[in-house]
From TrEMBL:
GO molecular function, one term: hydrolase activity
PANTHER family reported in the protein's UniProt record: MONOACYLGLYCEROL LIPASE, SERINE HYDROLASE-LIKE PROTEIN DDB_G0286239
Protein's name according to its UniProt entry: Serine hydrolase like 2
Organism of provenance: Macaca nemestrina
One term under GO cellular component: membrane
Family listed: Belongs to the AB hydrolase superfamily.
Entry keywords, A to Z: Hydrolase
Cross-referenced InterPro entries: AB_hydrolase_1, AB_hydrolase_fold, AB_hydrolase_sf
Domain AB hydrolase-1 per the UniProt entry, residue ranges: 33-294
Length: 315
């Protein structure tokens, strides 16, 4: 596994899909209750390298790279990265792993995709842990932008396909500066960890692994109405833990985003629908607290995973 291997890592996985493979890494006990870990937008499975070793090792954790991210294959030419396709990746991965019922730990965008999967396939998900995951509501101000997002997605894909430019080569320092500039929540150490899996060494330096067709998340993620969100939550069978970072997504992420109101709606809907099956915890830290200060979230997640009444599916 090399000198950069994460503590407790037991294997690197390559799971076949029609366009190539989904890469993943596994920790813990192969016989234990399975937990699928889903990274944030333009991140990769290394997002969980510092958190998973602090969690109970009698579970089996698999952190996957979404298509076009990390070490996973890019989608075939002409195929866009849409929300539904990303949700279907989870179904493909768990079929390859032969999991019938499992838990999901999703950070940010990974929580959005994992949450949607949990509503579409409710009988498969035992527990859902959302790590500072936003709710992209179709608010009135976003209705104005909806067609623009759809147009931008198509135009961006055509532009990337037409350019046929070779992958640009960077130094580690250049990539790190670029990454930290575009993401103020990442520190240098965490940035380097993501770049370890997000780049490939070539003679002149490093090239990014990610598919250049991936652009802004709103171009790939479906915005949902309040009505559809409430309906989807009613379908959930999972116990849900939502962890909000004090200085996370909801506090600084998007201008013109009615984040506080959306967060209130999200929590109220989850609490009123799921009742005792829902837990909300606010912790100190920023959007990448699970990487920079994993001890802040590890004990909360560990307690949630180990809670006895939640393990009935495995008894």
């Amino acid at each position: 596994m090399g000198e950069n291997a994460a503590p407790g890592l037991i294997s690197e996985l390559k799971l076949a899909v029609p366009w190539g493979h989904i890469a993943a890494k596994a920790w813990g006990s192969l016989q234990g209750p399975p937990v699928l870990c889903l990274h944030g937008w333009l991140d990769n499975a290394n997002s969980f390298d510092r958190l998973i070793p602090l969690l109970p090792q009698d579970f089996y954790y698999v952190a996957m790279d979404f298509g076009g991210h990390g070490l996973s294959s890019h989608y075939s030419s002409g195929v866009p990265y849409y929300h539904q396709t990303l949700v279907s990746e989870i179904r493909r991965v768990v079929a390859a792993l032969k999991w019938n019922r499992f838990s999901i730990l999703g950070h940010s965008f990974g929580g959005i995709v994992g949450g949607m999967f949990s509503c579409i396939f409710p009988e498969m998900v035992n527990k859902l842990i959302l790590l500072d995951s936003p709710l992209l509501l179709l608010e009135s101000n976003e209705v104005e932008n909806l067609l623009t997002y759809k147009r931008r997605t198509i135009e961006h894909m055509l532009q990337v396909e037409a350019s046929q430019e070779p992958s640009r080569v960077y130094s580690l320092k250049q990539l790190l500066q670029r990454l930290l500039k575009s993401n103020s929540h990442l520190n240098e150490e965490c940035g380097e960890l993501l770049l370890q899996r997000g780049t490939t060494k070539v003679a002149a330096g490093l090239v990014l692994n990610r598919d250049q067709r991936l652009s802004r998340p709103e171009n790939s993620i479906d915005l949902v109405s309040r009505e559809l969100y409430a309906h989807s939550i009613r379908k959930l069978q999972a116990h849900v833990l939502f962890i909000k970072a004090v200085h996370g997504y909801f506090d600084v992420r998007r201008e013109n985003y009615s984040d506080k109101e959306s967060l209130s709606f999200m929590i109220h809907t989850l609490k009123s629908t799921l009742k005792e099956q829902f837990q909300f915890v606010e912790i100190p830290g920023n959007h990448y607290v699970h990487m920079s200060e994993p001890q802040h979230v590890a004990s909360i997640i560990s307690s949630f995973l180990q809670h006895k009444h939640m393990l009935t599916a495995y008894l």
